[in-house]
Amino acid sequence: MKFSGTNVLVTGGSRGIGAEICKTLADFGLKVWINYRSKPELADALKDEIEKNGGKAAVVKFDASNEDEFIEAINLIVQTDGELGYLVNNAGITNDKLALRMKTEDFMSVIDANLKSAFIGSREALKVMSKKRFGSVVNIASIVGEMGNAGQTNYAASKGGMIAMSKSFAKEGASRNIRFNCITPGFIQTEMTEVLSQDVKDAYVTNIPLKRLGDPKEVANSVAFLLSDYASYITGDVLKVNGGLYM
Ligand code: NAP
Q1: How much is the average pLDDT of 65-81?
Q2: Cα(156)–Cα(208) distance, integer angstroms
Q3: Taking Cα atoms as reference points, which of 152, 179, 153 lies closest to residue 167?
Q4: How confident is the model over 206-226, as a mean pLDDT?
Q5: Residue 194 has pLDDT above 90, yes or no
Q6: 36 lines ligand 1 (CB under 6 A)
Q7: What's the 149 CA to ligand 1 centre distance in angstroms?
Q8: Is beta strand 56-61 parallel, antiparallel or unpaired with respect to 178-185?
Q9: What pLDDT digit, counting tens, does each position of 41-58 carry?
């Protein structure tokens, strides 16, 4: 894989899919800024692991749904490295409830964590990347944003919104050579899906043509492709990484 930029910021990078994205992009030679919100020990351990393997990494704490904190972090990166080549908006939460029982606060908490954060990051990345006329952003949406899911009206809205938002950013960024794409993972083995009962997991696997949950590495490889020069003519697209569950 070939990368013309030198560094990347991964939100929610200290664990789960985000951590795998950080490791994969470091293996491809990018300096990785690992964002965490609540567990510095995980972010520091990941930085050490990347450096032990010969990669470059830095840790940056902020709440991705907090505008001031996100802007401050991007400023720090640009001051330190002279550019922000790539951004992966990966931070996300769930707060599942049937819609009839979902309070407006439950709905908005997920919109803020998943969609507002990606908007702030994409807008700020567009600003700094515009100066170099180069950049690529990948937003981690979800299969649920494409097909909906009972108990996840908030999450589905946040991820469906992310897909539509990325296409709009792609149209605004194209004249400056800045690409925006989405990945829509299906059911990937992380703490987010750990909470599902074995029965629920088995039911999903029955319907997945590849007959298994996905591995975070399989998402990370797709992120690397979309960020890289190999995807230089791809923007505003949605890459499904779901074992065929939704085609
Ligand atoms: P996870 O294991 O629960 O990790 C979520 C990450 O997001 C954590 O690092 C968490 O940081 C971070 N985060 C949440 N809110 C944040 C905020 N406001 N600011 C900064 N960081 C924040 O989840 P995952 O499975 O790796 O999911 C990663 C992304 O993939 C999410 O956007 C998720 O919606 C999406 N996705 C996952 C699946 C799946 O099957 N796992 C499927 C489709 C899409 P802290 O630890 O500091 O809280």
Answers
A1: 98
A2: 19
A3: 179
A4: 97
A5: no
A6: yes
A7: 18
A8: unpaired
A9: 999 999 999 999 999 999
Strands 178-185 and 135-140: parallel
Q: Residue 100 gets which letter from DSSP? A: G
Find where tokens 């299906």 sit: 186
Contact 73, 98 (CB under 8 A): no
Domains of the chain: 7-241 (3.40.50.720)
- What type of residue sits at position 210? L
Q: Which of 23, 37, 144 best tests ligand 1's pocket when mutated (most atoms within 8 Å of CB)?
A: 37
What pLDDT, on the 0 to 100 scale, is given for residue 193? Answer: 84
